[in-house]
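=== RUN LOG ===
request id: a7f3
mode: sequence -> structure
chains: 1
length: 263
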Amino acid sequence: MKNLFLTILMFAFCLSVSAQEQIIYQSKNLPKADTTWVFKPKNYNKIEKLPVIFLLHGYSGNYKQWNNIMDAQKYADEYGFIIVCPDGLFSSWYLNSPVKTDWQFETFFFDELYPDIKKKYKVDDQKIFISGLSMGGHGAFYLFIKRPELFASAGSTSGGIKLSDGFGKFGLGDLLGNPPAESDLWKKFSVFENIEKMKGNPKPIIFDCGSADFFYESNNQLKQKCDKLKLNATYISQPGAHNKAYWAKSIKQQFEFFKNQVK
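=== RESULT ===
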């Protein structure tokens, strides 16, 4: 009986491990290796093609952050999504640095990570999503604005969508070359100033921010811009702060939103 229990336990462990894979990317576009964690749903081998969601972590986090918040395998199983969690290397902001030639995350994402995920996994090209928290919320919208044709939809939670809010903080000075507060360089890379490029694009986006969050006012302003541009944008303003408890609640809402897009 004891041996049978151990066999069942080992089988369950193997199933769990096989559903999760870590890929290490050595890229000329990054200063160090990027570890990406991929979670495959339990129905992976029964369906020809599946939706994918890229989840980007926040400043000072890593590829493990989202799994610590939401249990990514559980979400993959429940929603039938392949979940991809890349490492934003602590403070990359998921953009191409104008001063650091080896900090080119946007190029890495579009030229290496995105096509490799499509090559390695059973991806439905029409159902690729992207979202993130804080720094990752900015990154998700930033990458979506850059190449909207590659995604079905995008989300942001507690997003630092106006980079000037991070003046003197969050590693942005080093990444952008310490421009002055009034510099146009902040605007060049900021979602808030680039959202106009989405005018006329019918693809849906979703973003939210807690009322006690230090990015709350800027997200409210982004909502006003989206309304003015008549974008297909859903904005959720709700109680909460810039913390794990809020993101655990928010990501559930976003998965429901993306699930409806899949339908």
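=== NOTES ===
The longest helix spans residues 244-262.
Residues 1-17 have pLDDT under 50 and may be disordered.
=== END ===
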